[in-house]
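Researcher: We plan to redesign the surface later, but first we want a full-length starting point. Tokens attached.
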């Protein structure tokens, strides 16, 4: 599927997600999110714990369905796709780095990384070659035969990143991909993401770290289920970045900037009811 340069890779319209709707445990995790991301953009999403970041990411990654609202992935309304078409979209276009890694415990690092290629029917020798190359890219060539339990947290995170990259997905979604990494490894992973962006891939990254967000072209801030564009790009300058980092708790708790970002211009009125789980 080729997407014209001006068709958003991601366009959500009034996207809502309510967990346990109508019960005492009801949580409005997304309160109507309008987000537009164009091909080749590198976007960071920040915001306090529980503000809805992973919920949004799961919807963008077609791993969950909204309560209401619309999500167009590369111009296609995903609510119109059947299960097989959705699975194909995920397999062919989206790489997902989960917040909790989601590695299969009984498989080696190499087999974990190669897994998406199995679904894509790539022959085994080619799978092995690509998986080894992807592991080398994240600095883990020497650990290919280790199981997740034999790897450190940061190494497991890098295996998860290698797995997400193996198909060279047009859209890479990463939920706290550098959270468990030391700063040097984190920088290397960010450099890898930037190379992908420079090759025309779209990267969306959730992070709590202002310095990580400073590498992105654009930052959005999630607060109580609402998404706002950050008022100005975060600086990559080390001095101001560390100053910003020291203010992180304040930033997390602050009320949102004005909702004047480009993403807010979409017409939520067009939203239609999507299937709910
Ligand atoms: N499956 C679920 N059932 C019920 N409530 C849920 C479920 N998943 C998430 N929630 C709730 O929805 C809200 C948003 O959760 P989400 O995981 O999106 O937050 P987050 O911004 O990713 O937080 P963190 O930074 O801690 O990862 C939270 O209040 C959470 O408790
Ligand atoms: Mg989360």
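Model: Full-length starting sequence:
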């Amino acid at each position: 599927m080729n997407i014209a340069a001006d068709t958003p890779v991601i366009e959500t319209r009034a996207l809502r997600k309510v967990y346990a709707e109508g019960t005492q445990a009801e949580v409005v995790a997304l309160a109507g999110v309008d987000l537009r991301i164009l091909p080749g953009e590198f976007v960071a999403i920040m915001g306090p714990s529980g503000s809805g970041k992973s919920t949004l990411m799961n919807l963008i990654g077609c791993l969950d369905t909204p309560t209401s609202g619309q999500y167009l992935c590369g111009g296609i309304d995903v609510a119109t796709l059947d299960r097989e078409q959705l699975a194909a979209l995920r397999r062919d276009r989206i790489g997902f780095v989960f917040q909790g890694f989601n590695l299969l415990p009984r498989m080696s690092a190499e087999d974990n990384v190669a897994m998406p290629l199995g679904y894509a029917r790539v022959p085994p020798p080619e799978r092995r070659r690509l998986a080894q190359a992807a592991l080398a890219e994240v600095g883990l060539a020497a650990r290919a035969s280790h199981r997740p339990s034999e790897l450190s947290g940061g190494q497991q995170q890098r295996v998860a990143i290698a797995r997400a990259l193996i198909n060279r997905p047009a859209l890479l979604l990463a939920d706290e991909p550098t959270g468990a990494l030391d700063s040097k490894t984190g920088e290397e992973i960010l450099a890898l993401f930037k190379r992908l962006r420079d090759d025309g891939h779209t990267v969306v990254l959730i992070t709590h770290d202002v310095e990580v967000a400073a590498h992105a072209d654009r930052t959005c801030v999630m607060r109580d289920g609402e998404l706002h564009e950050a008022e100005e790009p975060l600086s990559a300058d080390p001095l101001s970045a560390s100053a910003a980092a020291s203010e992180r708790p304040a930033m997390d708790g602050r009320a949102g900037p004005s909702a004047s970002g480009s993403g807010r211009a979409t017409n939520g009125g067009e939203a239609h009811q999507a299937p709910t789980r």
